[in-house]
Write a structure and sequence with these properties.
The protein has 476 residues and is of the alpha+beta class. 60% of the residues lie in helices and 11% in strands. A 4-stranded antiparallel β-sheet has the order 3-4-5-6, covered by helices on one side. Strands 7-8-9 form a 3-stranded antiparallel β-sheet. It comes from Rubellimicrobium aerolatum.
Length: 476
């Protein structure tokens, strides 16, 4: 081996060691950086005419388990959807009141029954009659607030859809630009690992909103499609997801008549749920909340309000066919054709609120009853205790029992959603741990750094020895 060949070998070794130390330092510095994938230097032997000419740096390898990454992103989307539903149901259960705290509808109805029983023991007591009116007002207010809360949460779900659509479009546009940048970088021989890290971060963001499948394209670009086959990205072309938010949502509004669904490149996504081929993830969960879960709760509240209104009206023989009863639909009689929105409009009759003795006499009484007569109060009590079904074919129950069943159903839905969330979280956590296990290992990187240091020192010593040899030759 000539001195020049030995010198070239040593120089190439120093260059490789320098590049490797740079990569190891980057790995250690970004060990906790979200989206960063471990790098390593790819080396090969450099030879000319069968003679070793040192080492060549072929490039920087970015280590990613693509199959595991795809599974983790799928689990992340499922978890995002389950967490959104579970969180909304927890909030809704809190909003509708706790039975233990005496703030639920069932507790309010029980308070009315107790006040009526107390008044029946002394029907001449204006104080006890007033307590009945107060408890009726609290009961009606609980229904009003519950219906208003459900409407507010539907509006929040609709606003969440609009926000997520904006985020989704921004992420897809960013991925389209990264596709262009990655292809260009690889074409001119520039390391694209940093661009791929950015790509991974945006892919994670998209995957929480919409389930995706990634496909490779020429030059390092990617395409994204949903499991149902909708194309979101292909090279430099990003799809545009459209949505028009509804600032105010009433109980009668529903998709597709009054509420908007998604569009993809200006065309409806299809399906009867407004989200179609983009279902799944947190975006799909927002549609489920807006169009299924919350409307079902609102409908039940309206049915409970109608049940209460009818019970009190049926129990008062002094009322005419068109007279408003003790409970009213905005101070009027209930509609014979619809109950939509009744929970928000339910109110105590102002006549009874101004004259609590009408509880004893009846709302339409022409003459006052005997102050000691509790007959009408007994009718109110019996009406609340009567076993009736809330819907045709439903299980009958007292007014309080039907309300308690409603509260229990909300709790059961919340519990079921939390169980799904727990399972999804465990699956995601397992996959995430496996993914991180293949990431940057600080101990391993430190060991690699020691090896690099030894290799650098060895090559530097070779150069020093060659320098001494050259000096000796020149001194001859």
């Amino acid at each position: 081996m000539s001195l020049s060949t030995a010198f070239g070998n040593a120089l190439s070794g120093l260059g490789a060691a320098s590049r490797m130390s740079e990569v190891v330092a980057s790995n250690l510095a970004n060990a906790l950086t979200e989206g960063y994938a471990r790098r390593s230097v790819e080396l090969s032997s450099l030879s000319v005419g069968g003679r070793g000419m040192g080492v060549r740096v072929d490039g920087i390898a970015r280590h990613v388990n693509t199959a595991l990454l795809a599974e983790r992103r799928s689990a992340e989307g499922t978890l995002a959807g389950d967490a959104a539903l579970a969180g909304a149901l927890r909030g809704l259960e809190d909003d509708l009141g706790s039975t233990d705290a005496g703030t639920s509808l069932a507790a309010r109805i029980q308070a009315v029954e107790e006040a009526l029983v107390s008044a029946s023991a002394d029907p001449s007591s204006d104080t006890r009659l007033s307590q009945v009116m107060d408890s009726l007002g609290s009961m009606a207010s609980t229904l009003n607030q519950g219906a208003a809360t459900v409407q507010q949460r539907r509006e929040e779900a609709d606003a969440s859809i609009a926000t997520q659509v904006g985020d989704l479009n921004a992420a897809l546009q960013g991925l389209a630009q990264l596709n262009v940048d990655i292809v260009r970088a690889r074409a001119i021989g520039v390391d694209a690992a940093g661009l791929l890290d950015q790509q991974g971060v945006l892919l994670d963001k998209v995957a929480t909103m919409v389930p995706i499948r990634q496909m490779e394209r020429t030059g390092g670009a990617i395409a994204l499609i949903t499991p149902q086959g909708a194309t979101l990205l292909d090279g430099s072309r990003a799809a545009t997801v459209g949505f028009v938010a509804s600032p105010t949502i009433t109980g009668a509004m529903a998709y597709p008549d009054n509420l908007q669904g998604l569009t993809l490149n200006g065309k409806p996504v299809g399906g009867d749920d407004g989200v179609g081929a983009l279902s799944g993830g947190s975006l799909g969960a927002a549609f489920v909340l807006r169009d299924e879960t919350l409307p079902a709760v609102a409908d039940t509240l309206d049915l409970l309000a109608r049940d209460l209104l009818d019970r009190f009206a049926d129990a008062d023989p002094t009322l005419g066919a068109s007279d408003a009863g003790l409970l009213t639909d905005a101070q009027g009689p209930a509609s014979a054709t619809t109950t939509s929105g009744l929970a928000r409009r339910l109110a105590v009759n102002t006549a009874a609120a101004g004259d609590p003795t009408l509880l004893r006499d009846g709302l339409g009484a022409s003459t006052p009853a005997d102050p000691g007569d509790s007959t009408q109060i007994g009718r109110w009590i019996d009406a609340l205790a009567e076993s009736r079904p809330l819907t045709s074919g439903g299980s009958p129950g007292s007014s309080a029992a039907l309300a308690a069943e409603f509260v229990s159903d909300i709790g059961a839905r919340r519990l079921s959603a939390e169980q799904k969330e727990t399972y999804s979280s465990a699956r995601w956590s397992t996959l995430r741990s496996s993914e991180l296990a293949g990431g940057v290992d600080s101990d391993q990187e430190a060991q690699m750094l020691l090896q690099i240091e030894k290799a650098y020192a060895a090559n530097a010593r070779v150069i020093s020895a060659l320098d001494n040899m050259m000096q000796t030759i020149l001194e001859i």
